[in-house]
């Protein structure tokens, strides 16, 4: 019988009795035996020896320090602007502009940021925990009207991570929305950096559907974060994100 791996759920095995008649085989009896795989079953040392080098290599990579935080990056539930959201949106915009320098603003959602980051060293593992999904960076060209719809979504949900765009929220409505210091012009198009989950309608986002153009950058969001932090480190900088009033609520 093959060895069992410790997985924590019942394993059902079925044994067949088979008789031979010339070249044909036919089952004559079925027997089911349930094996409870849990704490009562000892781990198989052969399997442990097999995967242990890969586990150690993965842990070493996840523990690798790539930067340093001077502040705690928090994401208060009711705050329209957060340190974690600013860091995230700034990273998307900065890294996306390496490929598309004319990208004007970026957008994410609070729900996509799974953990807060504490002051101190930043490891690869921290950024995997922050963005554990397989989301990829996307550039969207949006009409001015779609940007207004996006601003409405941001306001109605109490604020979301953004960079390159500033706005006020009053009575759940967007007020004084500006991109690059100018009000939205409904006659032109804007270039937004976000990720495919939101571009596909995730988190009930609005304004991203039916873009004028869409370009999939083929780069994972967490890779974008890793590259951003690594770049800051190469330049001798720590991550010192601040609140700057990009979203306020009256």
TrEMBL record:
Q: Which InterPro entries match?
A: 5'-Nucleotdase_C, 5'-Nucleotdase_C_sf, 5_nucleotidase/apyrase
Report any one BP term from Gene Ontology.
nucleotide catabolic process
- All copies of the 5'-Nucleotidase C-terminal domain together span 65-205
Q: Which GO terms describe its cellular component?
A: outer membrane-bounded periplasmic space
Residues in a coiled coil are: none
Q: Which GO terms describe its molecular function?
A: hydrolase activity
Question: Which Pfam families does the UniProt record give?
Answer: 5_nucleotid_C
Protein's recorded name = 5'-nucleotidase, C-terminal domain
State the organism named in the record: Parapedobacter koreensis
